[in-house]
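INFO batch 0412 | record 1 of 1 | parsing
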Amino acid sequence: MRYEKMFMRFLELDNNARIPLSVRAYMIISPRFRKEISALRSTLEKLKHDGPYEVPAGLSGEVMERIQLLGCRYGHTISTLRWAFTGLVIWLSIMLITFSDSFSWLTGHFGARLLVPLNIVFGIGISIYAGCYIFSHLDDLKKRSRYRF
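INFO prediction complete | emitting tokens
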């Protein structure tokens, strides 16, 4: 069990990553493990140089520069109509909760002291929702605003 666990931990390492102390300690203790790890490393090293394509050493920097120049947006946007509809649902639920049986039971159980904390919680919830909308559409709001930030 310990052998398989250490072997899986070694296989999870990235290329040229530092070997964890527990795996190195197990390599010292177990000659079989040490032998298999060295065989695996040598095989991977041979495969690195025997591939059908030769990859230049500094290629990753060039590729990343080209990707940055593309200027693609990776963010997922939600339409303003969906934001408004969801906000309306939240607002209506806050307004309609006063007519529910649960609210009347809570008021009967806790008394009128429940109203202020409950309204504070609802206010914080709607403020967080509005803040999420504002921060997700900040560029659009800057363009539409007559004030310059």
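INFO post-check: The two ends are 61 Å apart (CA to CA).
INFO record closed
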